[in-house]
Design a protein that fits this description.
By secondary structure, the protein is α+β, with helices and mostly antiparallel strands. The chain has 3 domains: 212 residues, Phosphorylase Kinase, domain 1 (2-Layer Sandwich), CATH 3.30.200.20; 162 residues, Transferase(Phosphotransferase) domain 1 (Transferase(Phosphotransferase), domain 1, Orthogonal Bundle), CATH 1.10.510; 28 residues. 39% of the residues lie in helices and 13% in strands. The protein has 14 helices and 12 strands. The strands form 4 sheets. A 6-stranded antiparallel β-sheet has the order 1-2-3-4-6-5, covered by helices on one side. A two-stranded antiparallel ribbon has the order 7-12. Strands 8-11 form a two-stranded antiparallel ribbon. Helix 3 packs antiparallel against helix 6. The N terminus is likely disordered.
C-alpha cells in the first residue's frame, strides 16, 4: 500500500473532521501524529496477522504508539497489541530494543526458579504491519488490568481508596519487579504509576465481564467532513480510550511492569530520557546522566503515589523545571550543596522562586505529612465499610504502613549513590501478606480437590470400561461353546 503523500498545501487536520461535538472522545492521541511515518490508523474490527487478531477496543496511547484490545482468534484469548509509529519501528523486528529486552526478560524468568509471580508484562508475539503511514512494529502482550493511575482515577470518581494491604503488596511487588529487571541486566527507565498495572484475571471470566470492566461498549466518532475527502493517513473513526470502570487490586491479583521502550542495559549511562516531568529524577537535571539509580527514584515516586494517592511532585506551566525542583525541596529538604550553583542559575530572574528559596517548606516535608496521612487512611477504612471491611489482619496492616516512610525516604534521596538498594528497601517492608497466603491456600485446596475428582472420575471410567470388556469376553466365550 502506497503511503499518503502530502500536496503543497497539507490538508486541514482538526477534530471538526469527526462527529464529536461533545468532545466525548477526548483524551485522544494527536491527529497530527497520523501522518506518513507516524501512527497507524486503526478501526474497530480491523484484523492483523492474516486475520488472527481482531481489534475490539482502545486501551491507551503514548507519544510513540497506540495500544489496543484484541481477540486472538487462534488461541481464543484476549490480548493487548501495541502498534508503534512507523518512524519508531525497525526494518528488522529483531533490532527493536523493546522486543530484545522483553525476550531477554522472559528467558531470564523461564530459566530461573520462578519462585515469585511474574513481575513484567509477557510478550506473546511480534510482527510487522503495513498501513498508509508506513510499516509498524506490533507487540502482542498478555492483557492486563488498570494501571495504578487508572485505579486512582476510578477511586476519585467513585469515592473509593486503596486498602492498606494493597499499598503494601503493590509496593513490595514493584520492588521485586525492579530487582528482577536489574538482576537480568536491565534498567526499566520509565517506572511510573502509568506503567505499573494490575492483572485482572477476574475480569476474564467471560466476554461480558470484560466489557463491563472496560466501562461498556467502545465509544467512537466517525469521519464526517464533506469538504475534505478523508486522506488515507487519517483514521475512519476515532475511538475513545477505554476506562477501567472497576478495580482489580484484590490479593489474588499481581502487578506487572509494562512499557519497556525506554529500558537500557544496567551498564549504560544514558544522558536523556522521555519521562513525565513530575517524576523526573534529580540527576537528569543536575548530573547530566543517569543509571540504575533512576529506577530507584521512580520506585520511590510510585510508592509515594500508592500511599498518598496522588503524584509526588508537581510543576506549573510557566517554569516547569524550576517549580518541579522547588517541590522536591519542599518535600525532601535542601538540595546537596554541590547542586546549589546550578539551582541558583535556574531560578535567576524568577522572582517567585527567589523569594521562596530560603523558605524551609517544612510543612510539606514527607516526614511531617506521613503520619497524618496514615491516620487518615485508618479513618477511611474504619468509616467506609462499603469500600473496606475490617478483619483479623487489619491492625497488622495499619501498623505495616509505617515501614513505607523509611522506604520512600531511602529511595527518594537526591544523589543516586546515596539511595538505598532495592534489596534494602524490600527488607524494610516487614509485613506478612496474610490475605494473599489465604487465597493461595484456598486455590491450592481447590486445585487438589479438582485433581482428586478428576482422578476418581478416571478410575471410575476405567473400571466401567474394564467391566464392559469382561462382559464382552464372556459373551464371546459363550458363542464359542
Amino acid at each position: 500500500m502506497e503511503p499518503y503523500s502530502h500536496s503543497n498545501t497539507p490538508p486541514r487536520i482538526d477534530w471538526g473532521l469527526y462527529d464529536d461535538e461533545s468532545g466525548i472522545i477526548q483524551p485522544h492521541e494527536a491527529l497530527e501524529a497520523c501522518v506518513p511515518g507516524g501512527l497507524h490508523t486503526v478501526m474497530l474490527g480491523d484484523t492483523f496477522q492474516g486475520g488472527r487478531y481482531c481489534i475490539r477496543d482502545k486501551l491507551g496511547y503514548g507519544g510513540y504508539s497506540t495500544v489496543w484490545l484484541a481477540r486472538d482468534l487462534q488461541e481464543e484469548q484476549w490480548v493487548s497489541i501495541k502498534i508503534k509509529k512507523a518512524n519508531a519501528s525497525t526494518d528488522k523486528l529483531d533490532d527493536d530494543p523493546e522486543i530484545q529486552i522483553m525476550r531477554a526478560l522472559e528467558k531470564y524468568y523461564v530459566d530461573g526458579p520462578q519462585d515469585r509471580p511474574r513481575s513484567f508484562v509477557r510478550l506473546l508475539a511480534w510482527f510487522h504491519h503495513e498501513g498508509p503511514n508506513g510499516i509498524h512494529n506490533c507487540l502482542v502482550t498478555e492483557l492486563l488490568g488498570p494501571s495504578i493511575s487508572g485505579i486512582l482515577k476510578v477511586n476519585k470518581g467513585a469515592g473509593g481508596f486503596l486498602a492498606p494491604d494493597t499499598m503494601l503488596r503493590a509496593s513490595r511487588q514493584l520492588l521485586e519487579g525492579i530487582e528482577f529487571a536489574h538482576q537480568a541486566g536491565f534498567v526499566h527507565g520509565d517506572v511510573s504509576p502509568i506503567n505499573v498495572a494490575f492483572t485482572c484475571n477476574q475480569a476474564f471470566a467471560d466476554d461480558e465481564a470484560l466489557i463491563r470492566a472496560l466501562g461498556g461498549e467502545p465509544v467512537t466518532a466517525k469521519y464526517i467532513s464533506k469538504e475534505l475527502p478523508r486522506p488515507p493517513n487519517l483514521p475512519q473513526q476515532l475511538v475513545r480510550t477505554a476506562d477501567w470502570g472497576m478495580r482489580y487490586d484484590y490479593p489474588s491479583e499481581h502487578i506487572r511492569i509494562l512499557d519497556w521502550g525506554a529500558a537500557f542495559s544496567l551498564s549504560d549511562r544514558p544522558t536523556s530520557v522521555s519521562q513525565p516531568l513530575g517524576l523526573r529524577s534529580p540527576e537528569t537535571v543536575f548530573v547530566g546522566y543517569f543509571d540504575y539509580g533512576h529506577d530507584l527514584w521512580k520506585a520511590g515516586c510510585v510508592i509515594f503515589t500508592l500511599f498518598y494517592e496522588t503524584w509526588p511532585f508537581f510543576h506549573d506551566g510557566f517554569h516547569p523545571f524550576n517549580s518541579h525542583i522547588r517541590t522536591l525541596v519542599d518535600k525532601l529538604g535542601p538540595l546537596p550543596p554541590a547542586w546549589n550553583a546550578r539551582w541558583d542559575e535556574m531560578i535567576a530572574g524568577d522572582k517567585k522562586l527567589e523569594d521562596e528559596k530560603n523558605n524551609d517548606g517544612g510543612e510539606q516535608l514527607i516526614t511531617n505529612t506521613f503520619e497524618p496521612r496514615r491516620q487518615a487512611i485508618i479513618q477511611q477504612c474504619e468509616e467506609v465499610e462499603m469500600v473496606y471491611q475490617r478483619d483479623e489482619y487489619t491492625d497488622d496492616d495499619y501498623e505495616g504502613l509505617k515501614c513505607l516512610l523509611r522506604v520512600m525516604l531511602g529511595l527518594l534521596r537526591y544523589e543516586p549513590g546515596e539511595r538505598i538498594s532495592v534489596e534494602e528497601a524490600l527488607s524494610y517492608i516487614d509485613w506478612i501478606d496474610h490475605r494473599a497466603e489465604m487465597e493461595e491456600a484456598d486455590i491450592e485446596e481447590a486445585d487438589t480437590e479438582e485433581a482428586e475428582t478428576e482422578e476418581a472420575d478416571t478410575e471410575e471410567a476405567d473400571t466401567e470400561e474394564a467391566g464392559t470388556e469382561e462382559t464382552g469376553t464372556e459373551k464371546a466365550d459363550s458363542l464359542g461353546e
